[in-house]
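Tutorial, part two.
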Amino acid sequence: MPYYRRNIYVLSCTIFLAAVSWNQVIPFLPLFLKQMGVKANMLPYWIGIVFAMQSLASMLAQPFWGKLGDSYGRKPMILRAGFCLAGVYFGMSFCQTPWQLAIFRFLNGALTGFIPGSYALIATNTPEEYAPRSVATAQAAANAGLIVGPALGGLLASLVGYRGSMQVAGAVVTLSTLVVWWMVQEPNKVQPDDRTSLVEDLVTSIRSPLQLSLIFATMLAWFYGSAVGPYLTLHLTKLNGNNPEWLVGIVYALPATAFVLTARAWTSFGEQWGYDRTIVVGLVGGAVGALLLTFIHSIWIFGIFYFLTGVLLSAISPSISAITCTQIDESFRGRAYGIQQSAGTFGALVAPLAAAKVAAAFGISAIFMMNAVIFLGGTALFRALVSNWEKPKHTVKQ
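Running the prediction step on this input gives:
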C-alpha cells in the first residue's frame, strides 16, 4: 500500500477519535462549571469566558503553528498538538475553580491543532490528483466525531462523571497521537525559500485574491454554525411540542450527518465545475436555507430543511481545502491552513456575540435571518474576489 494511502486511513481514524474526544467534553463544560459551584447569576459569564479563551488563543496561535509546520514538518506539529491536547484534558479534569478551567481552555487554544495539522499533512503528502478527495474524507471523519462525541460524552458522564470523561478523552488522544507517531510518514517536507514573519505571511495572504477569498469563505462558514449552535437547542425545544425529546438531539446532529454523507461528492463536483463554483453554491444554499428556516414552526419540517441546508453548506469546506492543496504553493500550505483556521476562529468568536444581540432584540428565529443576509452579501463579495484570481497553471484531472 502506498504510504500516502496509509496516511489517509490512519489520519482519518485518529481525526475521528480526536473529534469524538473533543465533542464528548466541550458540550458539558457549562454543567461542569455548575458542578464546581458557580452561582446561577454568574454562570453565563463564566461560560462566555471559558469558551472565549479557547477561541481567542486559537485565533492568535494557529498561524504560528502552521508556519512551524511549513518549516519543520507537519507530523511534528501533529505530535506536539496531540500530546498538548491530552495534557489539557487531564489538567481540566483536576480543575476546582472556574478560573483554573479558563486557563486550561486558553492553553487548549494556544497549544493544540491536531486536526488542522492532519489536514495539512494529507494535503502536502498526497498526489495532487487525489489530495482534494483525501482531505474531504478526513473532514468527513471529523464531522462523524461531532455526531458520536456528545452521545458518548453523556454516557461517560453518567458512568464516571465529567472528570472521568475528560480523562478518557485525554487517554484517547494520547493513543491517537502514538498511532500517528508509529504509522504516519511524511517524506515530503518542503522548506520555505524565505524566512518570513507572521505579519509578512498574513500580508501575503491578504494581498492574494485567491487566499483572501478562502480566508473570507472560511470565516463565513464558521460564523454560520457558531451563530446558530448556542441557541439551537432552545429553538428546537420550543418547536418540539409534544414530540419525543430525542428528536431534538437528532435534528441537532443533521448538519454533521449531511457533511459526512456529501463531502466527497462535493469534491467530485468541484473537480468538474470548479471549486469556486461549489463554494458559491454552498453560500447561496446556506442563505436560502437560513431564510426558509426563519419561518418554519414545525420541528419535523425544520429538520428536513435543516438537513438540506447542511447538504449545501457541506460544499464550502471541502472546496476551500481542495483549492488550498491544488493552487497554493506547498511551501506556504501549512501557513495557509493556519491563517484560514484563525479566520474561522474569529468568525466563531464574533458570531455568538452578534447572535445574542439579534436574539435579544427579535427572538431566536431572527438569527437565521441574520445568517441569510450575511451569506447573501458574502456571496457577492466572494464572487468579486474570485474574478480577480490569477488563471491557475494547471487543472486537476479526475
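The chain is about 80% helix and 0% strand. In part three we will examine how such features are distributed along the chain.
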